[in-house]
Amino acid sequence: MKVSCLSLSLLSATCWLYLTPTITSKIVHSGHCMISVNVKEIRASFTAIKATIQARDAVRTISILSYPSSLHNFTSTDRCCIVHHLLQFYVDKVFRHCEIEDSQVNRKISSIANSFLSIKKKFRRCHEQNVCSCGEEATEKYKQILTNYGQMNITSAAMKSLGELDILLDWLEKIY
Predict the structure, then answer these.
(1) Could you name the CATH architecture of 26-175?
(2) pLDDT (tens digit, 9 = 90+) per residue, 63-73?
(3) 3-state secondary structure of 27
(4) Which end of the chain is more exposed for a tag (fewer CB within 10 A), N or C?
């Protein structure tokens, strides 16, 4: 009797541990591509550093992700494209230039960057299988994001982009 209760307890604990990441993750559907993304974990890391990052943003007249490069009204395949480009943008341009004196903030930035790298790797597979194509609207909006980014020096633009991460996270949660 004790052995079966112990077995049942171990089975329950194993199932709980196995299912816990699924509960906190969202499945992102972009065209034919489905990817598990833990937006809550990324948001928690971002929320912990948001005030510090946004306080370092001295340029209030330019936005990287907001209008006119708004992240709204995309078709399913264009969403896949823009998410792929934005992940690449954050990994290649933003996280590389967002180091500050506070080691705890740097650890949170690194955690977010690692999450983006993981998601980017999953999206790259879809992109390589040609299930994630880029339409004209997605291409134009991404070019506008790059133009907005290019209007500032690299460090300021990276900090602004990181400070606007909540815009991207809100959009991902809204569309998925």
Answers:
(1) Up-down Bundle (1.20)
(2) 898 865 678 77
(3) strand
(4) N
